[in-house]
Design brief:
Length: 631
């Protein structure tokens, strides 16, 4: 697994010892901006360089934001700022519009400090400068006050390009004597620069970001001990690093400890270089976000429409089989999307598989495992493969269209909010269905709920595996609520809040002790530089924003309407599970977990939407068992 490899691959510069006699510091760092439109395969000619893809920012960000993120070693979604990024550009020795950049950064939902890299280097006696050729990339070495130190005129000009036979060319890029320099070069000159690199120098080659795009960028790093593919604990994906990883990499090269406000991680390298794999990875990551509607919403809406048509056309005769098929297919859909992530098919094939395969498996389960066993198996078929993938290092989940959407730039391993809410519900409901089928009851059933909840918390919340903060809250809450209902003491469900707090503390402690790069420590403990209360405040603001986001309002309103209808007809609905105490326990657990998730997660509205969908379908499944008299 990648997290094991990350312990044994040192960051660039770790092998550098002693000071360079010419510059008085440990090697030079040069950030070389290459023309846009290149691909990782174009960089294979760089000598002694590791190659990969660079995620430029959270969402579709302008080029200036990418360089600002490099300067601060951290980043936030554009939607978390109170204003869009206005024009900022390095003009002379200052960055024009810098005051607005600083003011805007203070409004973000996570601590970001533009100019932190250059200021931190200066504090340690190291200059970071930009050549005239750098363009907007000079923002990467802007200081916190907006000052942009300039390289000598010769640095980055045509006369400074590396050419064989020029005296001193073997020592460094002529005319660029400063510890850290940003400049622009054509690809052929970059090849020559890499060939003439001194042993202790670090060269970072980055494709110039387009003016407005969230597409991945080609990147290569030539430095001490570099080989194969780039690696970063930030992504745990061979060949994939973040713009925020560059600043910690530069600081690590000089032996400087990374400040807490930087969320990036030092980049390392290893493994065998595979440009074709990088091309496939880039293509899949770009498709994940684009295919969500086609592979998720379209099958679901189609199934609902067909179930309604069948029920109406048969005058209710086939309403129960249609409901069962709809419920099981919807539960199986996330599991099928993990399969298509492994196959990486075309859009048409993925849409077809996502539409047909869940229905076929659901029909098979209804035929071979009638009653609550079919529901239990459907939940297991979805939840267990995701758990196995977490333990194996998240090889497939980030490539699934229901996964964390790495192309967006937010999460690159483990599960995201969509899976957090879905898997919690299916774990709770599936356990209740399995215990109902096996006729397990009382304390034994309660113990099963707690054991399954504990395992799910470790797998989906621990930094080594699922790395999801919310999972450390909703899974323990759901497990305790289910156990309380299983033993007939629902008032004990309030203990679930204490269990969630204990789980948060234990998971956080485990992540710190094991050295896991963890979303928990960064988001909750305040490892990103903000205080605990600041972090909590930002998360509450994000939760409120999720309910007011225009794109989500229609679905949220529909979900709330279903909830109101269920409360209004609660006597009828509760009658469907009156003789099924463990199914009721699973449903209560899923509802409680969804409610707590909606109040504590930065995607709170999503928990209401997903919870309403699945619980409505499971209650519909319960209605079919009452009507047919089956257990």
């Amino acid at each position: 697994m990648f997290w094991l490899c990350s312990l044994c691959v040192p960051p660039f510069g770790a092998a550098v010892e002693g000071e360079d006699s010419a510059t008085g510091h440990r090697g030079q760092v040069t950030i070389v901006v290459l023309p846009d439109g290149i691909v990782p395969g174009d960089l294979t000619g760089l000598e002694h360089a590791a190659i990969g893809l660079l995620n430029p920012g959270l969402g579709e960000v302008p080029a200036q934001q990418t360089w600002l993120d490099v300067s601060q070693g951290s980043r936030a979604f554009d939607t978390s700022y109170d204003t869009p990024l206005e024009r900022v550009y390095p003009g002379g020795e200052t960055a024009q519009g810098w005051e607005k950049v600083v003011k805007r950064a203070k409004s973000a939902d996570s601590p970001v400090i533009p100019g932190l890299l250059a200021s931190f280097l200066a504090r340690n006696g190291l200059d970071a400068v930009a050549a005239e050729s750098a363009g907007s990339a000079a923002l990467a070495v802007s200081r916190k006050d907006g000052v942009v130190a300039r390289a000598p005129v010769a640095c980055g000009g045509p006369e400074s390009m590396i050419k064989p036979g020029i005296p001193g060319a073997e020592a460094a890029i002529p005319g660029c004597p400063d510890p850290v320099t940003v400049l622009s070069m054509p690809l052929d000159s970059a090849m020559e620069a890499a060939a003439s690199r001194r042993e202790g120098d670090l060269q970072i080659f980055i494709e110039r970001p387009p003016a407005e795009s969230g597409d991945q960028l080609a990147i290569a790093i030539a430095g001490p001990g570099t080989e194969g593919m780039l690696e970063s604990p930030s992504t745990r994906t061979d060949g994939y690093v973040l713009s925020t990883d560059i600043a910690p990499t530069i600081l690590g090269h000089f032996g400087i400890e990374t400040p807490k406000a930087m969320t990036g991680q030092p980049i390392g390298s290893g493994g065998e270089l595979d440009p074709e794999r990088l091309a496939d990875l880039e293509n899949r990551y770009e498709q994940v976000g684009k295919r969500r509607g086609a592979a998720l919403a379209i099958p679901l809406l189609l199934w609902i429409a067909l179930a309604g048509i069948v029920s109406l056309a048969s005058r209710g005769l086939y309403a129960r089989p249609a409901m069962r098929l709809l419920c099981l297919a919807t539960i199986l859909l996330p599991g099928v999307l993990l399969l298509t992530a492994a196959l990486e098919p075309s859009l048409a094939v993925e849409r077809g598989v996502a539409t047909l395969l869940p229905v076929l498996i659901a029909a098979l389960l209804i035929r071979l495992a009638p009653g609550w066993l079919s529901l239990a198996l459907a939940c297991g078929i979805t939840v267990i493969p995701y758990g196995i993938d977490m333990l194996a290092g998240s090889a497939l989940t980030p490539r699934a269209v229901i996964g964390p959407n790495p192309g967006l730039g937010a999460r690159f391993y483990g599960i995201g909010n969509e899976l957090e809410s879905t898997l919690m519900i299916l774990t709770s409901v599936g356990t209740g269905a399995a215990l109902t089928w096996s006729s397990t009851s009382g304390r034994r059933a309660a113990i099963w709920f707690l054991v399954v909840g504990l395992l799910a918390t470790v797998v989906f919340a621990a930094g080594r595996f699922g790395a999801d903060v919310g999972a450390a809250i909703v899974f323990p809450v759901a497990a305790v609520v289910a156990a309380a209902f299983a033993i007939g003491r629902p008032k004990l469900a309030w203990a679930g809040l204490g269990a969630a707090l204990a789980a948060l503390l234990l998971i956080g402690l485990a992540d710190i002790v094991t050295g896991s790069e963890t979303h928990f420590v960064r988001s909750i403990v305040g490892g990103s530089g903000g205080s605990f209360f600041e972090v909590v405040g930002h998360r509450l603001d994000a939760t409120l924003e999720s309910f007011t986001r225009v794109s989500r309002i229609p679905v949220t309103v529909a979900a709330l309407a279903v909830i109101v209808a269920g409360v209004w007809k609660r006597e009828i609905v509760l009658a469907w599970v009156a003789d099924l105490p463990l199914v009721k326990a699973g449903i209560a657990a899923a509802a409680a977990g969804s409610l707590v998730g909606a109040l504590t997660n930065d995607s709170g509205a999503l928990f209401i939407q997903v919870g309403t969908l699945y619980l409505a379908l499971v209650l519909g499944f319960a209605w079919t068992t009452v009507k047919t008299g089956r257990k």
